Amino acid sequence: MNLADKYAAFVWPAYGVSALVFAWMVIDTLLRSARWRRQAERLEKDERP
Amino acid sequence: MIAALANPHRFMGFSRWAAPFLGVVALLLIAPGLWFGFAAPPDYQQGTTVRIMFIHVPAAETSMFAYACLGGASFFSLVFRHALADAAARAAAPLGAAFTVLALVTGSLWGRPMWGAWWVWDARLTSVLVLLLLFLGYMALRSAIDDEAKAARAAAILALVGLINLPIIKFSVDWWNSLHQGESIFRPGGPTIAPVFLLPLALMSFGYLAAFGALWIARTRGEIWRRRAQVAAVRAASA
Q1: CB within 8 A of B87, min separation 6: which ones?
Q2: Do B219 and A32 touch (CB under 8 A)?
Q3: Are A39 and B229 inside 8 Å of each other by CB?
Q4: Tell me, what's the pLDDT at B3?
Q5: Which of the residue ranges B31-35, B186-190, B202-206 would you say has the lowest mean pLDDT?
Q6: How far away is chain A from the Cα of B189, in angstroms, using its nearest Cα?
Q7: What's residue A2's pLDDT?
């Protein structure tokens, strides 16, 4: 496995961009979901007598 | 199964375990996919750039799959006015856009050393760019209209019209002269890729699809929570 040949300048950025986009997808999905869940549960709790 | 899950309460119960399960499946597929991908020998023509194939092709396949999911969910939302289908459609769009960006960027990084150009206005590349514009247009349309029901209808129509782009992407390399290589996996007579490349490609492809499934389900759950919060906020304001 040669990790630093003449094409390394193309291969590594491709994997790097993929890792970044995956990280964004996972973090954004989890944070959004948690935020809305907290908000819904707080509002629904306030409604209860 | 789809009818049973159309009930948001049942969907929340199902998705509580389905999203992490698919996430684990994605990890179990992508980890060995990366290992076999980096262990594969350089291609006799493309050298080590062949390793970009293991992330480029799965991203492209997943972007098309995401659009098919967006189109399917939009159909159910438009025809049956189903709120869960609309939530699923809305959740699919940003993920589909992200996978399309990945397909375009990794394709460009592969194209530069192989074709000598970062970008060409080739039928395959252009139709994938149109796919990205459809995802972005869907999201822009939804956020441009204040009335959520009207926004959902307008965006669903756009998504359904955009479905025509999927066969265009798939067959673009057959219908037009293209710099992009032709179909080499799903073709009559079997794949033309050597098994040493086919194994990591298959693992990564299924891994990407599983990752999309996990994220789509998790995002749809988030969208349901958002709607519940909205309803509760309206009730609180009118009380």
Answers
A1: B220, B223, B224, B227
A2: yes
A3: yes
A4: 61
A5: B186-190
A6: 30
A7: 60
Q: How far is A48 from chain B (nearest CA, A)?
A: 11
ipTM: 0.91
**How many contacts does A have with B, using Cβ atoms within 8 A?**
94
pLDDT tens string A1-49: 566 788 999 999 999 999 999 999 999 999 999 999 999 888 888 776 6
Whether residue B169 contacts residue B64, with contact meaning beta carbons closer than 8 Å, is answered with yes
User: Would you tell me which residues 1-30 of chain A have a C-beta closer than 8 angstroms to some C-beta of chain B?
Assistant: 1-3, 5-8, 10-11, 13-15, 17-18, 21-22, 24-26, 28-30
In tens, the pLDDT along B29-83 reads: 999 999 999 999 888 888 889 999 999 999 999 999 999 999 999 999 999 888 8
What residues in B contact A24, CB-CB < 8 Å? Answer: 98
CB crowding B15-30: b at 16 or more within 10 Å, else e = beebbeebbebbeebb
Q: Does the CB of B106 have a partner CB in chain A at under 8 Å?
A: yes
